[in-house]
Amino acid sequence: MKQLPFWQRPYFARRVLDIGSGHNPFKGATYVVDFDLNEGRDRHGNPLVVPEPARLFAADVQALPFQARSFDYVYASHVLEHVDWPGDACREIMRVGSAGYVETPSPLLEQGLAYMDKDLPEYWMHKWFVCSPAPAVLVFEPKTRTTISEFCPCSDGQFMKEFYDSLDFRVAQHCIRRKAKTTIFFWKSSFVVEVGDRTLNCGDGSKVCRFRGMRRALVASCNDLWRAHRLLRLKRTFPNSRIVFRKYGERTLFIH
Fold first, then answer.
1. Residue 237 domain-assigned?
2. Residue 45 has pLDDT above 90, yes or no
3. Has residue 29 got a pLDDT over 90?
4. pLDDT in tens, 213-235
5. CB burial string 224-252: b at 16+ within 10 A, e below
6. Is 173 inside any structural domain?
7. Model pLDDT for residues 139-153, shown as the tens digit of each residue
8. Which of 33, 44, 58, 163 has its CA at 20 to 30 Å from residue 82's CA atom?
9. Which domain covers residue 35, as residue numbers?
């Protein structure tokens, strides 16, 4: 069973819901919800695990069978990128819980993998790019065969496009730390959810595009001392990535 880092665990939560717990639920969950109790396609065929003494419910996160504020804490890890209506799912999570934790793949990972290979089925199990551009804000943008090749014309968007073009991200992603490849979101009481119908272009000046966060996460990862050997390998294997960093004025400990 998985756990949050010890300083982030909900120690005082008594009623804890784990949505989409699958074969690896969170320790301490008292209720678990899964949409697919049998086939296990989204958990790669692994059997469902229900920790003792948790109760199992077959339900959809977009319509949870619980009363309002039934839970002190709600986990939703690697669930929301799969749903058809993420706004409904988020509102249900807020309705039944008082606080919680959301985790999804980051846009950096989602776009990088599918951009390299648009035909591999495993890259199309997810329907959304999910990011948190500000505290208490969760943003969803559609992941389609069209949007996977769309990049904001701003410098952040063009940096990411040229970075992806400079290497094989299917290989390079193993050199990047997990924090950059994951959207991690804590909330309390409520949060703002924004669901777009296209890739946001920040050129209109209304909002910042997701590519700013992707670029910052990538650059921060390239300063990670714990991954020094992997980052040096990335630089040796894909020397064109250094050209992209230099072009856009990014100088990190290991790629410059």
1. no
2. no
3. yes
4. 999 999 999 999 999 999 999 99
5. beebeebbebbbeebeebbebbeebebeb
6. no
7. 999 999 999 999 999
8. 163
9. 6-152+180-208
Q: Encoding tokens for residue 46?
A: 């692994």
Answer yes or no: are the C-beta atoms of 31 and 8 closer than 8 Å.
no
Q: Closest Cα to residue 20, out of 100, 98, 95, 135?
A: 100
Residue 59's closest CA among 85, 89, 101?
89
Structural domain count of the chain:
1
CATH number at residue 53: 3.40.50
- In a domain? residue 190: yes
Can you tell me the distance from the alpha carbon of 159 to that of 234, in angstroms, rounded to the nearest whole number?
17
CA distance 91 to 215: 29
CB 98 within 8 A of CB 67: no
Count Cα atoms within 13 angstroms, Cβ side, for 239: 1
Mean pLDDT of the chain: 93
**CB 106 within 8 Å of CB 217:** yes
pLDDT of residue 44: 66
Report how far residue 155's alpha carbon sits from residue 102's, in angstroms, rounded to the nearest whole number.
29
Cα dihedral 207/76/184/237 (nearest 10): -100
Identify the residue whose tokens are 């996160």: 61
Q: What angle do CA 143, 144, 147 make, to 5 degrees?
A: 80
Answer whether residue 146 is part of any domain.
Answer: yes
